[in-house]
Amino acid sequence: RVKSFIKNILTKHKVLWYAYRVEFQVRGMPHIHGVFWLDKEEKSKFKNDDEKYDKSKVTQLIDEWVSCSLNTGDLELDKIIKEVNVHRHSKSCKKYKTSCRFNFPKLPSEETLIATPIPKDLPEEERKLKLKTSRDILKRVKEALEALKDDEDNISVQELLSKLGIGYEDYKKALGMSEKGDVVILKRTVKERNVNNYNKCFARAWNGNTDIQFCIDMHGVVTYTTDYF
Predict the structure, then answer these.
(1) Which of 73, 87, 124, 170 is deepest in the core (most CB within 10 A)?
(2) What's the chain's Rg over C-alpha atoms?
(3) What does the alpha-carbon distance between residue 116 and residue 219 come to, in Å, rounded to a whole number?
(4) pTM of the model
(5) CA separation for the pair 5, 205 (Å, rounded)
(6) Least confident among 32-36, 112-116, 170-174
(7) Which residues pair with 15 in a beta bridge?
(8) Is the pLDDT of residue 36 over 80?
């Protein structure tokens, strides 16, 4: 039933190809890695007249497929997400001597955006200064999120930034700046900082933890497929 349900979703949204593989962890628990590609007609909706992708349109596509919301308007789905798709730190998080190798908590944002590298034609000193400013801002926000207790997280992004003395526009610029390649930043509230990415239809059908990622370029697709297929 689940397989049929998911196949109907893929057909409805004009998925041209899909592939997946079931893997087993050392303890015997199965999990699935998969990739799907949208067809040309569907992708053409998100291009400019010069046939290049319009990032402002692509973020709309991402919002259609990927979410981290705790308030979907569907009480049953909300219950599923809270039960199976919220990250909780464990010993595994510190496997590589980091506070969380899965990078939780995630940075909040009032909108989905695509972070891009600093233009290469900027003077080196200016590039270094922009990167340092961005790192400092995001580090402060990250540390504040890590220190935040569950009964203190019902605040907006701007309220959190205000407590830190950071302007939202400065934060948005820092979020929109990547150090390497394009990176998707999902629309996310402070309360949703530990929610893993999911697709609403898949989550209802699967009723288990998912991590849905939008591959922004061919390098991301090739890296994923060669790692897992």
Answers:
(1) 87
(2) 19
(3) 15
(4) 0.86
(5) 7
(6) 32-36
(7) 38
(8) yes
